[in-house]
TrEMBL record:
Claim: Protein transport is one of the keywords in the record: no
Family, as annotated: Belongs to the UPF0060 family.
InterPro entries: EmrE-like (IPR037185), UPF0060 (IPR003844)
Origin species: Candidatus Pantoea multigeneris
Positions of transmembrane segments: 7-26, 32-52, 59-77, 89-106
Cross-referenced NCBIfam families: PRK02237.1
Swiss-Prot/TrEMBL keywords: Cell membrane, Membrane, Transmembrane, Transmembrane helix
Compartmental location: Cell membrane
Protein name: YnfA family protein
Membrane topology: Multi-pass membrane protein
Length: 108
């Protein structure tokens, strides 16, 4: 379960970076060259999703919980926004959902 969770967090980082870099280009006037690492990051994101042994729908559903937590941590660490108790509660609920889905892999 730990390996799967860490793989999901790495996957989420690849997706967030792949989306954040074009956002910097479009909204903050950063270099268009950021689209190159963004493309590579999104390709890495897609490849990482294929490394899970479960059916794609289950992988996407479980991944969603980790993505919520990772996006909020990004909001805190990169954007510098203080998270509320509601943010943390929602992230923990989403992460719990991921753990329940992953615990059931191979049992159905």
């Amino acid at each position: 379960m730990l390996k799967t969770t860490l793989l999901f967090f790495l996957t989420a980082l690849a997706e967030i970076i792949g989306c954040f870099l074009p956002w910097l280009w479009l909204k903050r006037g950063a270099s268009v060259w950021l689209l190159l690492p963004a493309s590579l990051s999104l390709a890495l994101f897609v490849w990482l999703l294929t490394l899970h042994p479960a059916a794609s729908g289950r992988v996407y559903a479980a991944y969603g919980g980790v993505y919520v937590m990772t996006a909020l941590l990004w909001l805190r660490w990169v954007d510098g926004v203080k998270l509320s108790h509601w943010d943390w509660a929602g992230a923990l609920l989403a992460l719990s959902g991921m753990l329940i889905i992953v615990a059931g892999w191979g049992r159905s």
